[in-house]
Design goal:
With about 500 residues, this protein is α/β, with parallel strands linked by helices. It is about 45% helix and about 10% strand. A hairpin with a 4-residue loop joins strand 15 and strand 16.
């Protein structure tokens, strides 16, 4: 929609322009969008049946909104999308600091200009992108920043008395007049600053210092807050919370598939990276499962939450890890391996807050544990549950139990043999090492007969990790990057008894 060719107040009156408040404007445009079945909140996945209907009800009610949820739940993004419900262009008095409505001016400047020029008052058209204001609440934010204050320099330059309204320097909220204003992390505002918002939300106006003027601002307020803040850094003062009409609870994706769709949409992966690196669905699902496991881990602070940014960063790191290997080996194309998940460790350790037990365990160990738990959770979606082949003392039950397809693999390691898979080794060496394990390729082909060589290799590696997570073989990380697999019994004996020194052996016997 092009900017209207109307330049004065008189022309605006003749054009038949209909004046509306911001909340009326958003409400009427929302009604039209709902009736036409248009998608309003584009790119927001997983909120279709929960958060979005709540937001629409709040906007239809002309409410100010508080988004309450843990970090990484698209609270700010939801607020920014509301801008699309405003008119593309609105008229304002030319030169006004606070976007004065030509039909209802509130600043001294606009009132004087209209009194002087009448229908010849110049107007400009403001695009809806200019009608959005946002402030991150921090402890150092002042009333002057948000509302305004007396500007002594302006008073001196214009030779005005401090009693003159023209000496006022308006804060960010008055400058958001006739738009949307968002305060992120509201509890971080000091209580006395929150108190300064009371009048705006209740009476719709502000007062600055000792001036008698009252500015009836036309603003839709949107606040965001993390429940953690109520008990840690700060809190929302009760009278202010009471004045925010709609409180909307956000949440994390409820399924791995939905989380995967969000990650693929948001991850900043270059086309040239995807030309060089293949990311199998198994690896994408594993990235998402890590976040799912973290959100229920006893080592992770659940009050802090596990942001969706964890999976986005982890996915980007995963692709870059495989890309780096391909570049070192001068390969035009490679496939992501399970060993490449060592490269996502920084994305995990940097995105989770640990409780005391987690701190004692250490961030790196917690990250390794989360990856292991994710492999175990996904394993039965790709292969039969190893526990279903477990034998018991009941002979009748044992006769009914089928032979485990994993037994040849377990027996190979039981002979004292080990397998080391290095993160940076070539694709050919990686595949060759996997084929050394008796029964490993046969187990994969049994369930995935059409898998090509690269896919089969990934599934073979995944099978090894799965057996390790079910404690059927041992697994340990290698400092240089990679994993070493071996016999579970031998590993336990070494851990419990260590190695016996020859001299000590002679003394003992």
């Amino acid at each position: 929609m092009q900017q209207p060719n109307v330049n004065t107040l008189g022309e605006l009156k003749k054009s038949g322009y209909r004046n509306r408040t911001v909340k009326q404007e958003i409400r009427e445009n929302l009604i039209q969008s709902i009736q036409q079945k248009q998608q309003i909140f584009k790119g927001i996945l997983g909120y279709e049946d929960t958060v979005i209907p709540d937001v629409e009800r709040a906007l239809l009610s002309r409410h100010n909104i508080l988004f309450l949820g843990l970090r990484g739940q698209a609270k700010t993004r939801m607020a920014r999308e509301i801008v699309n419900l405003m008119d593309m262009w609105v008229p304002v008095v030319e030169g006004s600091e606070i976007n004065d409505n030509p039909f209802a001016p509130i600043s001294l400047y606009a009132r004087d200009l209209i009194n002087e020029k009448g229908d010849e008052t110049p107007i400009r058209w403001m695009h809806r992108s200019e009608r959005y204001g946002e402030k991150l609440a921090t402890p150092d934010v002042s009333v002057a920043d948000l509302i305004g204050d007396v500007d002594p320099i302006k008073a001196a330059n214009l030779r005005l008395s401090f009693a003159d309204e023209r000496v006022i320097h308006y804060g960010i909220i008055p400058r958001s007049h006739r738009g949307i204003f968002v305060i992120n992390e509201l509890p971080d505002l000091q209580a006395r600053i929150q108190v300064s918002l009371f009048n705006i939300l209740q009476e719709g106006d502000i007062q600055i210092r000792g001036f008698k003027l009252r500015l009836p601002l036309d603003i839709l307020f949107v606040f965001t807050a993390n429940p953690e803040d109520y008990t840690n850094r700060g809190s929302i003062v009760t009278p202010l919370k009471d004045r925010i009409e709609s409180q909307i609870i956000t949440h994390y994706p409820k399924t791995v598939e939905l989380s995967k769709a969000i990650t693929e949409q948001e991850a900043d992966v270059l086309a040239e990276q995807l030309q060089r690196v293949v990311v199998p669905d198994l690896c994408s699902m594993l990235v998402e499962q890590i976040a799912m496991e973290a959100r229920k881990s006893e080592y992770v602070d659940q009050k802090s939450g596990v942001s969706a940014r964890l999976t986005i960063s982890a996915y980007e790191n995963l692709v870059s890890t495989a890309e780096r290997r391909a570049l070192k080996e001068n390969n035009k194309r490679t496939i992501v391996r399970i060993a490449d998940f060592i490269g996502v460790m920084p994305a995990i350790t940097g995105k989770i807050e640990l409780v005391y037990e987690g701190e004692q365990e250490g961030p790196t160990n917690v990250a390794f544990r989360l990856i292991g738990q994710s492999i175990r959770s996904l394993f039965t979606q790709y292969f039969p549950d190893p526990q279903s082949f477990k034998r018991t003392g009941n002979e009748a039950h044992n006769r009914k139990t089928k032979a485990s397809p994993y037994q040849p693999v377990i027996d190979w390691f039981g002979k004292g043999q080990e397998l080391t898979l290095l993160q940076d080794e070539t694709d050919a060496a990686y595949i060759q090492r996997l084929y050394q394990v008796d029964g490993l390729h046969a187990a994969v082909k049994r369930y995935y007969p059409n898998a090509d060589e690269a896919q089969a290799a990934l599934l073979m590696e995944f099978l090894l990790h799965g057996l390790a997570e079910y404690s059927l073989i041992s697994k340990k990380g290698i400092e240089s990057g990679g994993y070493s697999f071996g016999d579970i019994l031998g590993s336990m004996l070494n851990m419990n008894f260590g190695t016996v020194d020859e001299d000590d052996e002679e003394e003992d016997f």
